[in-house]
Amino acid sequence: MLSGGFFSTTTQAQNSSQKLLVSKSNNPEQASQDKKLRHVVLFGFKEDATPADIRKVEEAFSALPGKIPQIKDYEWGINNSPEGLNDGLTHCFLVTFESEDDRAIYLPHPEHKAFVDVLKPHLEKAVVVDYWTNE
Fold first, then answer.
1. 2 within domain boundaries
2. Are the C-beta atoms of 37 and 95 separated by less than 8 Å?
3. Is 21 within 8 Å of 90 (Cβ atoms)?
4. Domain membership of residue 79 as a residue range
5. What's the predicted TM-score (pTM) here?
6. Residue 113 lies in a domain
7. How many independent structural domains does the chain possess?
8. Residue 82 maps to which CATH number?
9. Residue 109 covered by a domain
10. Is residue 94 left, alpha or beta, with left meaning phi > 0 and alpha meaning psi from -120 to 50?
């Protein structure tokens, strides 16, 4: 699993101008029309989760953009990295918001909570990373 140490080492290896650029692009106070808030969600499923169980989770997550208007874009996929560094995480979901307010509506939204109820019985682990990016 990626830890703070990994990112600290990576950041230390960058020159100061790159650090400044990273700081600017990830600063929520500087969000503007050309930036989007990305919500990256990685899942690893329990060994006893069946393909049908996992498909239900995929379908439930994929239904959220049609139910929560604050979701501006959505995509997902299954890990196919040859590096073997996924630490049991098999599924990646990318949700895009235009603002932190939109994310704040999404997280406690009843449809999101219903999705979590579908997910929980099958989930072994999850990692969530949110960041601002330039489009």
1. no
2. no
3. no
4. 31-134
5. 0.74
6. yes
7. 1
8. 3.30.70.100
9. yes
10. beta
Q: In the numeric block, which tokens belong to residue 102?
A: 């939109």
Which residue is it, tokens 């990305």?
38
| pLDDT at 13 exceeding the cut of 50 | no
Quick one: DSSP state of residue 27?
A: -
Q: Considering the chain, what percentage of its residues have pLDDT values greater than 70?
A: 75
- Distance, in Å, from the CA atom of 104 to the CA atom of 45, rounded to the nearest integer, reads 26
Q: Residue 41 phi/psi, 5° resolution?
A: -125, 125
What is the residue whose two structure tokens read 């489009």? 135
Write the DSSP string, 35-59: EEEEEEEEEEE-TT--HHHHHHHHH
Q: Is residue 23 part of a domain?
A: no
* Tokens linked to 22: 């990273």
Q: Report which of residues 6 and 42 the model is more confident about.
A: 42
Q: How far apart, in whole angstroms, are the C-alpha atoms of residue 117 and residue 57?
A: 10
- Total residues belonging to the chain: 135
Phi, psi of 25 (to 5 degrees): -75, -20
Residue that is written with structure tokens 């808030």 in the block: 37
DSSP 88: T
Tokens 């960041």 found at = 131
CA gap 49, 91 in Å, rounded? 13
